Amino acid sequence: MRTSLLRPGAAFRAGRFLLLLAIAPPLAAQPSNDECAGAIAVFDGTNPPQTNSGATTSAPGWSCGAGLNDVWYFYAASCTGIATFSFCTGGSANYDTVIEAFSGTCGSLNLLACNDDACPGGRSQLSVPVTAGTTYLLRVGGFDGEVGNFTLGISCNPPALPNDECAGAIPIGEGLNPAASTVGATTSPPPWSCGNGQNDAWFSYTPACTDDATFSLCSPGFAGYDSQIEVFGGSCGALSLLGCNDDACGGLTSEVTVPVVSGSTYLVRVGGFGGNTGAFQLNVHHGGVYNYVGTQCGAVTLVPSGLPDIGQSVSFDLGGLTGTPAIWVGQPANVPVCPPASCAIGATFDVFLVGSASLPATIPCDPSLVGATVAVQGGDIFGAGGCSLPVPFAVSLTVLVTIG
What we know:
By secondary structure, this protein is mainly β. It is 3% helix and 46% strand. The strands form 9 sheets. The protein has a 5-stranded mixed sheet, with no helix packed on it.
């Protein structure tokens, strides 16, 4: 007869042990991204549900929050700006999380930031500067080894514009100002008075003369999106609307003209219809223009530069000279000389300068000059290709300056 090897009661205890094994939950599997080398890609927006259940604790040691039981992810930045990784906004977690962000590679990690608690429930969020196209590593763990389920929310935004609000308005001047952008701008108060404007940037302008000023994104200004523009008097805390425009110059770019007073400061707001954003260049002028009359013969040329507006500096420069330069200024004229050559005198000789190839000038800040037209022409005495009597000479085209 066989004798049982179990002591009295041993069979009962073994059976109870087997029963406990049968009803105990299985151990969580080790995640594939338990270590940095197995990091999983994550993207902007709310990522699919994840867990740190079954994870071990990776090296290096956590820099905050007694983090343990971590899993790894990698993120290729979609913008140059600020990336936010969150279980608070756009993400969630059912346990006390900890999160770390690194630059570099798994073998050479450079800690950027670590966060334990950022919002109620012990959930985490951190923001770090990133460069578009660069890959960053994220480590998600639990405070003191807590485990659970989570979704990671990611957003990437350009850095805030320094002139996003009225108080940070950037000074602008006459003519074509430097390129700017509304990308990353928010929408400032007060509400736009035209065209559903949003996402705006601010500028300040102080005119040298009392006149009408035009603020324009039309050529030679530029806007690469559906723009809007608004001009105010007063101060940021007490704005007084002077003008607003949505669409001008035959398209979706904007332009507005308002009266301005010398020495006063005006605030200019550039935004986009319905939240459109993009790059632009703002042109400020007072309506002065150059026109050209074909009085030229020979190789001599006359090129104007500068804004032909009151209070502004202009210059007229000769080129193509072979003899002695001359420039004269006066009223518009049209006197053919030595036909059948195309030479013609296009300006009276109210001011006549010999020996200089350039004529710089400043238009006086006199409102009575606005709308007046002045003619400027240049000559090349002893220059070839023009008239030959009494001495050889050539003349340029005539520049008609209508003062703005």
